């Protein structure tokens, strides 16, 4: 057991220096003296002596071109590791389907990018920011949250996340007025703006497509409604003319004694227009003409009956016209005060004075 001659501290076996005061054990001769070394190198311009940053290729003081400048070690290390992973990439058997999923090789790249430590030196942070932003593909964001290529989008997201980390680290470790920080900040916000504009274009295109699809659906419906409303008067007029022609034909059939044909024509008088008042009017005329044909035939010894369809039409017509004709007949038999009013309305319908108002 031995003790330090300088401070008396107990020394470990085979120790060359005292672990407490650092005094050499062998008495202070030069052979056992502790050496002091400084970590890192201060680079200076060989022309003017100006201190240089590690990434500079020209002297900022005299402009001398510097040769054999070494790349930043952390950026170089990450690049080499990524290249090594890429060298072992397996060939995709189904490239179209595989675009929907992140490949194993790209998963390894993403994991490396996310876990790789950001350097501390401000020059290294700048180089790292350049590497990260240059590997972000804005096209990966042109389809919003549904990427066309899952692997490419995953890599861009990893680099984007890393650029965010690099910016936050520079924000804390570099002065805001430092030219290096300004470069880092510009790179960060330029990249963010490009991605934001790309996403806006996607949203705008989706909105435009939605508007076009709605227009393709709504506009034809509006045009159809408009055309139907526009053609309604013409359709009603055509119905008036058609039924009037049938009415004339019925009168001709009765004059010729062709009662069966007259009955068929009377039963076919169905108004197909949109005017409710005209539908009521022609319902009354239809019932009147059917009864008239049957009565005229009976006077001539011909017995006619309504067809089944005509009986159904009668119920429908009575519902539409308010059972005007049957009410008219009952009014005649009852001698009520409504007789004159019913007679006037019936005469008005049969004379066709309401035809113009029905249009």
Mind explaining what this structure looks like?
It is a single chain. This protein is mainly α and 359 residues long. Helices cover 62% and strands 0% of the residues. The protein contains 12 helices and no strands. Helix 1 packs antiparallel against helix 3, helix 5 packs across helix 6 and helix 7 packs antiparallel against helix 8. It is rod-shaped and about 160 Å long. The N and C termini lie far apart (130 Å). The C terminus is likely disordered.
Q: What percent strand?
A: under 5%
How much helix is in the residues?
A: 55-70%
Q: Give the strand tally.
A: 0
Please give the alpha-carbon distance between the first and last residues.
130 Å
Largest sheet: none
Structural class: mainly alpha
Shape: rod-shaped
- Stretches where pLDDT is under 50 for at least 5 consecutive residues are 68-72, 317-325, 353-359
What value does the Rg take, in angstroms? 51 Å
* H/E topology pattern: HHHHHHHHHHHH
């Amino acid at each position: 057991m031995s003790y330090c001659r300088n401070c008396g501290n107990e020394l470990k076996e085979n120790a060359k220096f005292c672990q407490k005061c650092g005094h050499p054990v062998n008495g202070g001769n030069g052979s056992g003296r502790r050496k002091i070394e400084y970590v890192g190198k201060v680079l200076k311009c060989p022309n003017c002596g100006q201190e240089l940053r590690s990434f500079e290729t020209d002297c900022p003081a005299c402009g001398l071109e510097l040769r054999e400048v070494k790349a930043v070690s952390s950026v170089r290390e990450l690049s080499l590791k990524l290249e090594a992973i890429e060298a072992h990439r397996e060939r995709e058997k189904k490239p179209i389907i595989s675009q929907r999923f992140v490949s194993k090789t790209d998963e390894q790249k993403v994991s490396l990018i996310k876990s790789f430590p950001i350097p501390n030196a401000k020059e290294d942070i700048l180089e790292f920011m350049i590497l990260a932003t240059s590997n972000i593909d804005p096209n990966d964001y042109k389809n919003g949250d549904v990427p066309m290529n899952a692997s490419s989008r995953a890599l861009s997201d990893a680099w984007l996340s890393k650029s965010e980390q690099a910016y936050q680290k520079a924000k804390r470790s570099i002065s805001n007025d430092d030219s290096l920080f300004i470069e880092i900040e510009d790179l960060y916000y330029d990249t963010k703006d490009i991605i934001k504009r790309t996403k806006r274009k996607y949203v705008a295109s989706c909105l435009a497509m939605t508007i076009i699809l709605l227009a393709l659906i709504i506009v034809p419906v509006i045009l159809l409604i408009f055309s139907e409303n526009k053609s309604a008067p013409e359709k009603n007029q055509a119905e008036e003319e058609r039924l009037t022609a049938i009415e004339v034909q019925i009168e001709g059939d009765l004059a010729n004694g062709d009662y069966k044909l007259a009955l068929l024509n009377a039963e076919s008088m169905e108004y197909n227009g949109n005017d409710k008042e005209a539908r009521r009017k022609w319902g009354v005329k239809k019932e009147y003409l059917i009864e008239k044909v049957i009565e005229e035939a009976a006077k001539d010894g011909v017995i006619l009956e309504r067809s089944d369809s005509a009986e159904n039409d009668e119920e429908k017509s009575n519902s539409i016209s308010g059972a005007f004709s049957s009410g008219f007949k009952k009014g005649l038999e009852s001698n009520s005060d409504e007789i004159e009013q019913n007679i006037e309305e019936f005469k008005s319908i049969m004379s066709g004075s309401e035809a113009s108002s029905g249009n």
